[in-house]
Amino acid sequence: MELSADYSRQTICAVATAFGAAGIAVVRVSGANAIRVVDSLFRGKHSLCEVPTYTAHYGTIGSPALNGSGQNVLDEVVCTVFRAPHSFTGEDTVEISCHGSLFVQQELVRLLIDAGARMADKGEFTKRAFMNGRIDLAQAEAVADLIAASSAAEKDVALSQLRGGVSGKIAELREQLLTFTSLLELELDFADHEELEFADRSQLTDLLNSATQTISSLIATFQAGNAIKQGVQVAIVGAPNAGKSTLLNALLGDERAIVSDIRGTTRDTIEDTIIIGGVLVRLTDTAGIQSTEDIIEQKGIERSRQAIRKAHIVIELLDSTDPQPVLSADDLNPRQVLLRVLNKVDLQSSNPQIFKSSNPQILKSSNLIYISAKLGDIQPLLSRLESEVSRLTAHTDSVLISNARHYEALCRAQTALERVNEGLQAALSGELLALDLHDALDALGEITGEVSSQEVLNTIFERFCIGK
């Protein structure tokens, strides 16, 4: 896919570093006239229009003096020149490293616009890289994921995709399917000779089995990939005053939630994140679950149940002085992990009769995890959490599907290939088989951007920051 002539002639600029004052900032300029635009403001040992690619040049930048001689210096800068097609966007690009004053950044962008550039749209640099064939759509999405990565595992998944892990698998599949589709369509040119078959049906069956297996394997990685990308959801639930907020604070190592001895202190969900085993974990402290006529408390309990439905792991916290479960079998689905945790075990030494008078059936459970959130004695729970997070995000594949758009496209491709297989069994014509193969090809092509609509592209690139 190539840029339109009008689009490619436009030179864009934006601050590429995070907003705010810093030691340095980088302003990126890209387009057919990028080097000329920056050179009109730059004064150094050499004109930027004459220097080779991949070179950095020190000098000053600013507007020409009113009398036509000299320069109104804005800052001392280093300009790095990348000539097309050897740049991120595939166009002539200059990256200007200046001092990180907000005034300097904003004034430099203004000077560039006055010199003939325009402000870049969200994600436009990456979009140009895609449109100019430097990266495909899956890799472009990986750029945004890498920027947003908040854990080592999330970074690794995004980096693998950026390096073409997903794209390589999809390209190989499409090439094989496209070859057979072409042969099936070739048969249409010889419709008068029904005995001719250019596409060997037995080979097509083998290909379908192999392709379906590959797609199924990719689809199966989505649970782990999505958990890594979005974070493993953990809901802390229990009766009022079981110590849920105290546990949240202990897990975070911070006084995030208000704690008191008054029952029902937490009326709404409180969310925060921690890293466990290199994976982002999203903790949700919930309102105590009980029967109540209080309308506000009822709304809080409904939000608690919503948090339970979204969770990968549910921690049911029990008060050792009165360990009453609040969850039933209907509250959880088979894919969710339930950790039943007995809190306030520090009270056992001061009052052993508590445990004798407690619910004996609960206390006999071999799966109970004993903690004291108040004293910070939560290592047994942390160890179990780390084990479950590791299991949820475990994978043996070198390629993980973490993007919901990719997952949905793979599911459609799988369904289309199943139709092809059914058509083969029913001895349908090559024309009908080719139609379903095209559906599979289109679905796979949507992942890498070989088949895409402007609406999809806009949605994807709107996630980006201005300078990327």
Report on this model:
The chain is an alpha/beta fold and 468 residues long. It is built from 18 helices and 13 strands. The longest helix is centred in the middle third of the chain and has 24 residues, at 165-188. It is flat. The mean pLDDT is 85.
Summarize the structure.
The chain contains 18 helices and 13 strands.
Write the layout of secondary structure elements.
Layout: H1 5-9, E1 12-15, E2 22-30, H2 34-39, E3 42-44, E4 55-64, E5 71-82, E6 93-100, H3 102-114, E7 118-119, H4 124-131, H5 137-148, H6 152-162, H7 165-188, H8 201-220, H9 222-230, E8 232-238, H10 244-252, E9 270-276, E10 279-285, H11 295-310, E11 313-319, E12 337-343, H12 347-350, H13 353-357, H14 360-363, E13 369-370, H15 379-392, H16 404-425, H17 430-448, H18 454-461
Parallel strand pairs: 1-7, 8-10, 8-11, 11-12, 12-13
Antiparallel strand pairs: 1-2, 2-6, 3-4, 4-5, 5-6, 9-10
Output the keywords.
468 residues, 18 helices, 18% strand, flat
- Number of H- or I-type helical stretches: 18
Largest sheet: 7 strands, mixed
Radius of gyration: 30 Å
Strand order of the largest sheet: 3-4-5-6-2-1-7
